[in-house]
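so ive been stuck on this for like two days lol. basically i have the seq below and the ligand is NAP, smiles is in there too. i just want the complex predicted, nothing fancy, no docking runs or whatever. if the output looks off dont worry ill sanity check it later, just need somthing to start from for the group meeting slides
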Amino acid sequence: VTGASRGIGLAIATRLAREGFDLTVSARTPATLDPVAAELGALAVAADMGVAEDVDRLADAHEAAFGRLDVLVISAGTGTVTPIEQTTTSRFDKQLAVNLRSPFQLVARLLPAMKATATRAPQHGAKVVAIASITGMASEPGMSVYGATKAGLISLCETINVEASAFGVSATAISPGYVDTDMTTWVHDQVPPASMITVDDIAELAVAITRLSARAVVPNVPVVRTGATLWRA
Ligand SMILES: NC(=O)c1ccc[n+]([C@@H]2O[C@H](COP(=O)([O-])OP(=O)(O)OC[C@H]3O[C@@H](n4cnc5c(N)ncnc54)[C@H](OP(=O)(O)O)[C@@H]3O)[C@@H](O)[C@H]2O)c1
């Protein structure tokens, strides 16, 4: 589970540990990651998903420790809200690397292990669960790069399904609107946290996906807040 030290990733990791999964948990900051790993009995690998070498090191550490991969949860993500004309290429590159390149790299590196796991457990197969965003399905002002990376992540999940589901490996993007986490404190004056989706809602969906048989492929699960407008963050 990437991005496992806080927010959505923490909620998913906590539930998967409760379900009996042996976990590798990852985030950049050991001070917040290590206590989570201790609590969940998980392997902690501090890694920056914006740094290609870190991503490879995370995949290698998981494989060396467990030798199999039933579920890859991709929750690490980053975003900045700026109009297109004020968005620098360095902000573009950072979001692209964390939100899209690192998922691609993890999947590319770990697909052989996931296919091998699926071969050993054909009923269940192996699953990728990637936290995308509703902004990857319908644009929001100020989120040009973030939304593009999440649209790319949704597309990556689709490609995993067409390339690997015949081998038992499927992928699901979960695409929420605003979820009440550290990532959304900036918008509290417009969207009260009590009106946001909860991390438990997203974790519930993620765990449900891990329980499906290998026959069912769920490419994308949009999740939006209550109110009159669908498909908005
Ligand atoms: N909250 C929302 O409204 C919302 C809605 C739709 C989609 N999402 C997506 O859901 C995912 C989780 O978001 P969240 O709301 O749970 O965020 P969060 O509460 O801010 O947690 C982010 C997690 O990712 C880690 N992380 C951040 N940057 C990283 C990097 N460069 N490398 C490795 N780990 C990194 C953080 O730990 P460190 O800081 O220690 O690295 C933390 O564990 C993201 O992909 C986000 O885009 C969120």
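The pocket of NAP is lined by residues 3-9, 27-29, 32, 48-50, 75-79, 98, 131, 133, 176, 178-179, 181-184 (CB under 6 Å). DSSP finds six helices and six strands in the chain.
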